[in-house]
Specification:
This is Lipopolysaccharide export system permease protein. It is found in: Cell membrane. The chain has eleven helices and six strands. The protein has 353 residues and is an alpha+beta fold. Strands 1-2-3-4-5-6 form a six-stranded antiparallel β-sheet. Helix 3 runs antiparallel to helix 5 and helix 10 packs antiparallel against helix 11.
Length: 353
């Protein structure tokens, strides 16, 4: 049986890796074409390529379930088209045993993907976000987007970017008193000195009086704020770019503050269940290889895999978003489509047995 596991597993493993490589290449090319309009003297093509390159580990972990589905269809389909699967069945090897041989490399890749999503992609994607925001420059319009809005000590604060060392970049502080805007301060950078004391660097201030607006510039200013550097850093990151431990930490913090942590819980459970998503799709792939796609061409199998993968991913996305606007917990919203996929796959396998 070891030879069977090695032979079937190698076929599936190589096919999954090939599909993942193709999907990553297509994603890189399409994203580059979409983002190339941002290229200018400050945001160069080299910077764009650097940002897209840093996003590859996260994309790899994200594409592994669909890659496992299409790769299994290709790998087992190639064996079925040459009647090797028929010979295995004639030799008395049960269908579930062939499926087990195909699931082993997929499970190994899924675990690798989970480790990448925890230890590699968060660091790379967070660096990509920082490079992207700092190179694009400061948005001078009032409608600022892309960063994080916070309320601290009665003031509204916008932070464009932050790094792991606790430095904040492109900060705008709207100083208000009795619901009246008193001043607007913008700083290029902020560093935390103590728990409640920050130092602002390169500040431009606009102070509003009854008769005029006073504009001033300072190299450094002290800023009293109870904001914590760790949570400020997490608040400026997209949920998908955080590791499992960061998602759990920040969602717990939001709950303690009485704030909505749905986005972060959704991202957490989406990453946790990716290995199960891969296995569920592989079971569906195995059931179709020995069923309706038994005599299909390679192109037909790939096309079917893409359709099944798109249907699964869209259902997963819709159920996840539905959980954010309803009383359905994110855990249920993510696990329900995976459970249905498992049930359908096992039912089809039982019919082919």
């Amino acid at each position: 049986m070891r030879k069977l596991d090695r032979y079937v597993g190698q076929s599936v493993f190589l096919a999954v890796c090939l599909v993942a490589f193709v999907l990553l290449g297509l994603d890189f090319a399409i994203t580059f074409i979409e983002e190339v309009k941002k290229v200018n003297e400050q945001y160069t093509a080299a910077t764009l390529i650097q940002v897209l390159g840093l996003q590859i580990p996260g994309k790899l972990a994200e594409y592994l379930p669909v890659s496992s589905l299409i790769g299994t269809l290709i790998g087992l389909g190639a064996l079925a088209s040459t009647s090797e699967v028929t010979v295995m069945r004639a030799a008395g090897i049960p269908l579930w045993r062939i499926g087990y041989s195909a699931c082993k490399p997929v499970l190994a890749l899924a675990i690798v993907g989970l480790l990448v999503a925890e230890y590699v992609s968060p660091i790379a994607e967070q660096k990509a976000n920082l490079v992207d925001k700092l190179q694009v420059g400061v948005n001078n319009d009032f409608a600022i987007t892309g960063g994080s809005w916070l309320k601290a000590n009665g003031d509204y604060v916008y932070i464009d970017a932050a790094d792991r060392d606790g430095n904040l970049y492109n900060i705008t502080i709207y100083d208000r008193e009795n619901d009246q805007l008193q001043a607007i301060r913008t700083a290029k950078r902020a560093t935390q000195e103590t728990d409640n004391l920050w130092t602002l660097h390169d500040i431009s201030s606009s102070t509003f009086t009854e008769s005029q607006v006073v504009i001033s510039h300072d190299k450094t200013l002290e800023w009293q704020s109870s904001l914590k550097a760790d949570f400020l850093y997490l608040s400026t990151q997209k949920p998908d770019s955080l590791s499992l431990s960061q998602l759990y930490q920040y969602s717990s913090f939001l709950k303690e503050q009485g704030l909505n942590a749905g986005e972060y819980e959704l991202a957490f459970w989406s990453k946790v269940f990716r290995p199960l998503s891969s296995l569920a799709l592989v079971i569906v792939a195995i059931s179709t290889i020995f069923g309706p796609l038994r005599s299909s061409t390679m192109g037909g199998r790939i096309f079917s895999g893409v359709l099944i993968g798109l249907a699964f991913q869209n259902t997963l996305y819709i159920m996840g978003r539905l959980s954010l606007v309803s009383s359905l917990p994110p855990l249920v919203g993510i696990s329900l489509p995976i459970l249905v996929c498992f049930v359908v796959g096992l039912y089809l396998l039982k019919r082919r047995h």
